[in-house]
Write a structure and sequence with these properties.
alpha+beta, 12-stranded mixed beta sheet, two-stranded antiparallel ribbon, 17% strand, elongated
Length: 459
Amino acid sequence: MKSFLNGLYLPISMLVANKKRSFGLICGFLLSLICMISSLFAFFAFDLGITKRMSSEKVYSTFGISYEKDKHSQEVLAAIEDCQPTDYVNTSIIYLNYYMKGNGMIHHNNIVYPTLTIDGKDYLHDYDYVKYTNPDIVNISPKTSEQIIVYDTELSTAIITKEEAAYCRKRGESALVAGRQSLERGEVMVAADLLDYYGINYEDAVGKKISFSQAVESFEDFTISGVYSKLLKDSPFRNDGANERYADFWISEKSFDHLGWTTDGSYTNQYDIYIQLPSFSKAFDTYKALEERFSGTYGIDTRANYALDSYVDFYPYYETAAYVLIIFTVLLVFVTILNVFVLMGYSVKKNRGFNTMLKAVGMTDGGVIKVYLAQILILFFIALLIATLLTSIAAVVVIYEVNISIINVYGSGFGFDFLFYLPAWALSVIAVLALLIVASLLGITKNNKTNIVRVSQEQ
């Protein structure tokens, strides 16, 4: 330990004797480290960390196109063919109102609940899962309408996509909890929540006849083909953070056409195609391309799940910041390395007599080089301590602000993680340190007038 401290005495003394030069080098090292750590952290946290996390959630590579079927089918189908999805479904929603019509106002005492009949047993369908919450009041509102999702089975490649199935498996449940994924005419798939509410066993319900009778519209003697998981309610595929696409019943378009529901405006010609791409990066590129393709087209809207949407919104800021940081990092590192190269050569030349003295007292050429390298390492580690403090604080602030912004705007989505600061810091230290050592050695030994070996030979 004592010998180590003694070895530092000489380089520290030389640094103190050249305070202005030492301060300049520390500032250069500091700026280089800050820029490099910041740019690598942005890359790791955003481009690698977030995309990996979102891809692991499986459903984040899915987005949708809303369109009017009679007007825009050909355009939308052409877009789907171009993006080559792995799965896609084409659906519409029917809303059946439960309340009686009168003066246009909805009153709870005017609600007329339909009757649900399964295997000959009647249930009053007052099933309610609608909750509205604010910081002051928690109000459970009576359900006043029914959502039924209609699938265009001829266009859809799936009823439950591969990503949806993976999403549910990751949470410990199958997307299809009983029966089969089939929606032929006269068949219906039922939500597990609904059967849970009435205490009906999933397997027992499959294959049974079901009727849903209400004052305005109904379906009768449909066959339950399958029961799907309640986890799908929270899947970003069914829920984009604002528009819940969960329903108690799924039927095919053939079944809907057969029912002839045309009254009360329950049927809409608005359809949604949900497109699953093979990866998140593919979904991101395709979603942006389709947004541009349909921009300004009335009646066609692209919409992503909350995670992809938040990523798309934040990506331009990240991209701009990344380019700026990369440019500054390259310039600063180049200037810093060049400065070290020049200063080391100048220092050796200026201290020519001092170097000769060191040689005279028995120090080898390698020992003299080590003295100069020690100066660079001391300044580097001083700069590193300051850079670590500043960049770690900045990383925590950025992570907090970005995550809060995403939650406030989207309710959910991706998030920055401090874990990715560590490899950014490590790589920056290794890269800058290696470049400084190389520049120092070149500055010391490759200068034709200040070469230590030449100095010793002349003496």
